[in-house]
C-alpha cells in the first residue's frame, strides 16, 4: 500500500509536469565508441579534506578511492550479512551517473546491456502499445494502443500509467529495459501489466499473451480536396522508404496539399528523419536573415546539426535533388519528441509547413552508447541538436503555428476517426485557407 501511495503521488506530480521522454532516442546513429576502464589501485585512510572537487573542477579521485576503501573496511568488519560485491560495484557506477542528474544518462550492468543489445532480427513479440516516461517522476505512460493487439484486447487505454510488469514495479527503471526485458518476451508467453487509470484512480491487472506485432510505421490515404494524409508512428530504419513510397502514391492520385501526422511519435533514428526531410525540401535553401549561421553551406539546405560540449558535431544537408511543392501541415502534440521535432523544426525553419496541435515535447539532446569492460556499458548524453535556424528546443519544445487541444473525450480512444478528430480538422482548415 505504501508503494502505491508513493506511485500515486508521483503520478500527480507527473500530471503537473507534462514532460515526457521519447521511447526511441535520436542520435544512436552517431556511433558506438569503446572506452576502457583504468584500474585504480590505492591504499590508505580517507582523506581529511571534505572537498569533493579540485580547483580545476575535476573529482578528487584519490579522496574518493580512500573513502570507498574506508567504507569497505567498515563493511568487512561490521556488516551482518553476506556482501554481494558485484552488486555493490555496479551500484557505485550507477550512483556516479545518477549524480549527473540527467535521466537519459545511465549505467548498464552486464545483464542489462546484454538484454538491451539482443538482436531480435526485427521481430517484435509484445503487447502492441507505445509508451513514454516522465523525466521528472520516472512514471511510464501508455501513449498509443494499436488495434487488434493483446494490449487493446486486454482493455489498455492511452493515458494509463504502468505501475508493475509481473510482480516488479517499473517506475523509475530505464524505459528501454522495461520494454525489452519486461514487456517484450517470447511469443505465446503471458505477461501481466498493472496500470493506474488516472480518471478513476483504480489499479487494473491485465494479463495478456505476447504475440508477434507488425505495425507499419507509415500509413497514408487521400482525404477530400486532394489532401494527402501521412501518419508516421516512429522513425525506424524502414520508415524513410515507406514515407517516400507514400508520397509517390499520393502524388499519382493528384495530391495538392499534404498533412504529416506526428502526434505521439516518440522519435527514432536520425538517418530516417534526415532522408525524409531531404525528399521534401529542395537542396538550395538558406535561412533568411541569419548570415551568421556558420554551418550553412552555400546552396545547401541544412536539415539539422549537432553540437557537443566543444561546439563540434555532425551536420546534415539535403542532397537528393527531390522536393515536394505543395502546402504542408504537420500535426504535433506534447508527445512528439526527438526525431519528430527534427522533422517539424526543419520545415518550420524554412517556412515550408504549418505546425498544428500543441507544443512538442522538447527533447533536443543526443545519447550515445559507450561499451565498457566485462560486458557493461554507459548510455550518455553527448550533444545538443539544433534546427536549421539554430534553435535549441531542449526543454522548450516547438510552439505550433495553430494551437488546438485534442477534444477531451478523444484522448483515451484507441482509434480516432478522421471525422471526429478536431486537430486534423484544424489542419485541413489551415491548408484550405492557404489556397
UniProtKB/TrEMBL annotation:
Keyword Membrane among UniProt keywords: yes
Membrane-crossing ranges are: 12-35
Annotated Gene Ontology cellular components are: outer membrane-bounded periplasmic space
One example of a Gene Ontology biological process annotation: proteolysis
Q: Which domain of life is it from?
A: Bacteria
Q: Does the keyword Protease apply?
A: yes
Q: Which UniProt keywords apply?
A: Hydrolase, Membrane, Protease, Serine protease, Transmembrane, Transmembrane helix
Q: What GO MF annotations does this protein's record show?
A: endopeptidase activity; serine-type peptidase activity
PDZ domain: residues covered: 113-180
Similarity remark: Belongs to the peptidase S41A family.
Per its record, how is this protein called by name?
Carboxyl-terminal protease
Instruction: Please tell me the species this chain comes from.
Output: Lacrimispora saccharolytica (strain ATCC 35040 / DSM 2544 / NRCC 2533 / WM1)
Amino acid at each position: 500500500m505504501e508503494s502505491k501511495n508513493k506511485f500515486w503521488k508521483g503520478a500527480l506530480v507527473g500530471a503537473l509536469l507534462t514532460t515526457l521522454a521519447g521511447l526511441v532516442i535520436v542520435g544512436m546513429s552517431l556511433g558506438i565508441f569503446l572506452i576502457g576502464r583504468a584500474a585504480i589501485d590505492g591504499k590508505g585512510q580517507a582523506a581529511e579534506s571534505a572537498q569533493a572537487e579540485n580547483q580545476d573542477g575535476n573529482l578528487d579521485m584519490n579522496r574518493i578511492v580512500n573513502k570507498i576503501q574506508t567504507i569497505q573496511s567498515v563493511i568487512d568488519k561490521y556488516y551482518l550479512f553476506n556482501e554481494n560485491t558485484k552488486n555493490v560495484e555496479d551500484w557505485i557506477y550507477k550512483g556516479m551517473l545518477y549524480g549527473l542528474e540527467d535521466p537519459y544518462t545511465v549505467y548498464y550492468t552486464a545483464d542489462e546491456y546484454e538484454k538491451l543489445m539482443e538482436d531480435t532480427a526485427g521481430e517484435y513479440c509484445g503487447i502492441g502499445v507505445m509508451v513514454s516516461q516522465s523525466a521528472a517522476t520516472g512514471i511510464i505512460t501508455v501513449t498509443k494502443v494499436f488495434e487488434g493487439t493483446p494490449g487493446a484486447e486486454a482493455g489498455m487505454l492511452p493515458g494509463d500509467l504502468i505501475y508493475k510488469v509481473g510482480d516488479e514495479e517499473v517506475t523509475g527503471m530505464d524505459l528501454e529495459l522495461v520494454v525489452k526485458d519486461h514487456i517484450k518476451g517470447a511469443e505465446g508467453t503471458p505477461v501481466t501489466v498493472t496500470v493506474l487509470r488516472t480518471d478513476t484512480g483504480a489499479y487494473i491487472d491485465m494479463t495478456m499473451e505476447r504475440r508477434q506485432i507488425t505495425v507499419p510505421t507509415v500509413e497514408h490515404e487521400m482525404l477530400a480536396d486532394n489532401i494527402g494524409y501521412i501518419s508516421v508512428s516512429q522513425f525506424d530504419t524502414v520508415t524513410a522508404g515507406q514515407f517516400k513510397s507514400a508520397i509517390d502514391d499520393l502524388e499519382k492520385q493528384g495530391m495538392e496539399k499534404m498533412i504529416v501526422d506526428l502526434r505521439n511519435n516518440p522519435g527514432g533514428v536520425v538517418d530516417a528523419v534526415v532522408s525524409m526531410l531531404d525528399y521534401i525540401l529542395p537542396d538550395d535553401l538558406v535561412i533568411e536573415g541569419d548570415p551568421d549561421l556558420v554551418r550553412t553551406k552555400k546552396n545547401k539546405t541544412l536539415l539539422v546539426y549537432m553540437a557537443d560540449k566543444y561546439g563540434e558535431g555532425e551536420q546534415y544537408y539535403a542532397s537528393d535533388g527531390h522536393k515536394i511543392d505543395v502546402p504542408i501541415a504537420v500535426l504535433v502534440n506534447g508527445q512528439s519528441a526527438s526525431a519528430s521535432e527534427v522533422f517539424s523544426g526543419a520545415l518550420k525553419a524554412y517556412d515550408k509547413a504549418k505546425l498544428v496541435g500543441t507544443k512538442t515535447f522538447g527533447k533536443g539532446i543526443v545519447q550515445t552508447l559507450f561499451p565498457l569492460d566485462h560486458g557493461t556499458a554507459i548510455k550518455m548524453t553527448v550533444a545538443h541538436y539544433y534546427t536549421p535556424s539554430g534553435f535549441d528546443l531542449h526543454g522548450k519544445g516547438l510552439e505550433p503555428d495553430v494551437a488546438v487541444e485534442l477534444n477531451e473525450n478523444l484522448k483515451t480512444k484507441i482509434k480516432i476517426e478522421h471525422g471526429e478528430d478536431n486537430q486534423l480538422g484544424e489542419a485541413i482548415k489551415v491548408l484550405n485557407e492557404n489556397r
